[in-house]
Amino acid sequence: MKTQILIAALFFGGLVTAQQKKDSLKVNAIDAVNIKKQVFKKQGDRLVYDVASSSIAKGTNTFNLLKQTPMISSIDGKTLKILGKNDAVIYINNKKTNMDSEALIEMLKSTPSEDIQKIEVITVPGSEFQVESKEGVINIVMKKSKNNGYNGTLKMQNEQAYYNNPNAGASFNFRQGKWSGNSNFRTGSWTDRQRYTLSNGDPTFKNESFGFNDDPNKNFGGGFNIDYEINKKHSLGFSYNMRYNKSFNSVLDITNWQNGVLNNRTVNNEDAQTRNHSFNLNYEMKTDSLGSKLTSNVSYLWFNRNKVSFNESFPLTNDTINKYSALHQSVPQIINNYAANIDYLKKTAKGATWLMGISYNHTNTDNDTQQDKLKNGEFIIDPNQTNHFIYKENILGIYLNYERKLTEKISGKIGARYEMTRSTGDIVDKTGFERNYNNLLPYLNLNYAINSDHNLSYTFSSRIRRPRFWELNPSRTYFTPTNYTQNNPFILASKYYNQELNYMYKNAFYANLSFNMVEDAAASDLIPLQGTVTAPKKDSKGNIIYDIKGNKIMETTRFLRYIRTNYGKNREIALTLGMNKSWFNDIWTTNYSVNLGYVTYSGGVWEDPTSMPVPGETEVVDPYIIDVKNYNMSATINNIIRLSSKKDWFLGVNYFYASKTAMEGGMIGTRQSFDFSLKKIIGDWTIVAEVSDLFNQSFYSVKGVQPNGKYNNITNFNYPRLMSIGVTYNFGNQKLKKAREMKSANDAVKSRT
Length: 753
What we know:
The structure is a single chain. The protein is mainly beta. The radius of gyration is 28 Å and the shape is globular. The model is unreliable at 1-36 (pLDDT under 50).
């Protein structure tokens, strides 16, 4: 309770200070605010943060700049989220970035903030954006200059968490006449350390597991973008991006207890490699002097992940049921995607804008899972878990938008996206399915500029969320022989309906009210299914044991499976109150926001959709009922303080808080994080020292209880405290215009790898 009172005091204290400052300005006959450029404002369907007019956009990188942007937060330093949304999709100059998420974050961390003109936050994107579910869009607009020359950035960073993690990167940009281009390269190594506490059971039975996971990673990635201006109307571009990640000797070590008695120990050793290559060819033709243009793209994406694991379970008691067991597993995944799109943007002399386009995606995934289990001292194929899954998907999309200013105060945008999906899944020699569906996804935005101080807007959007390709691959990841995660090839796409009402006052204070509905909802995480399997008892050599009458002796084993599946529907309403303002001649810059939410989940899972019947065995799954109603709260408090008049020393003090929050699998515990940073600018050099989550309080702990008394609790402590020091050197002409950013035709597919 004290924490929430502190948050409220800080937030509303800022409002009081704002009013006091306003009153003090009344004394002055000439108010400088009247001619000062607006840093933060509402513009059509987006919130615009003009960072070129902000003092904090000096000597940092784009990722840190985004963390200071209203409505955007990052609690782990690896992801960006828009408050109240699932994830943030990054666009640059209205073109979706052509790289995977980890490479994207590294690129943002190596891009100087001085290159950024403004950041646009689109909480409910229009039909022209390739997004899913309730994702929001962050559009980064680069500064423009036609100067010839080159520039670049060199960056080295060392992070200390549980292990030491170094990384480095470089980027290079050039422009000469009709040619322009940019390239980047990143390399690094890190080891994730996680400590697990798992418990499940009911009033009569209790199973507990304790252990840790060490996951070492080495990676490198990069790419280039070349653009050629054929003439003033025609441009041609080509881009390539790649990433390679190697994770060998990853160890998961779990010790298991049943009803307080030490039972067994499971050790899983894993080697994995991931390769990602993407290519895009772009052509753009300007059709008039008003800004109309025709754009086309042809893209290819190749994604490959190979994972090989060896799982051993050692008995720690003298009973005959818990015997030594082992299995080998190979889980390769190959994704090939071919895509193309054509967009035509038409601007009229009366100020209206038409956007129409068509896109096509063909994706083929190949997942040939092999699993061997130990039997009679030899490894033999497990036919139940060995499968070859081939998934093919074709998506045709047609979209149309119309935008115009209706009066001096009222503007609007209306559009729709029609998507036709044809997909087939085939588990070779076992089963298969075919899914064909069509979706009409409307969009509407109305904006009312009441006066110079007040702005009101309403937005409606419909979207779908297709399963990620790795979620469809019917493979398992084992904690113990009877406790594992299970992917689901039969999971359905979910339909989302998003509404939002936004109010802004004096381009500094805002309120955002949103309401989201989801049909055929799939769990945001995993559904824990408990149950029993009754099968003939076997001896150490795998032979069935009979009683003296010749009847098979049956034994019952409990299991816990974490399943990805649809369960029903959910509803969510959220209110975000925020403030972005600078004080005392930009010495102190604040970005505060509070998010209040109410969410309901309803439905259930009554069977395991991935189970394959085994002759002679009987499986009983306990129904998993989802009936959740939950109020939640989160707050972000960011402060940047300029410590010197030369603008070369800056102190950052940030705080994040999230109350208990419900999800389909249980209740997530309270999380919070205190972050501090100190920045020093020395000419073209920038040195930054940071401490993230000083008190190690942003880890996940989930508790779930069913009406029948069965429970499942998970604590994943990932050692979130992180200390880092980074050095960045910018060289060359920093006012150089970057090469034209190009939209890739397969953008929507990349987020699903």
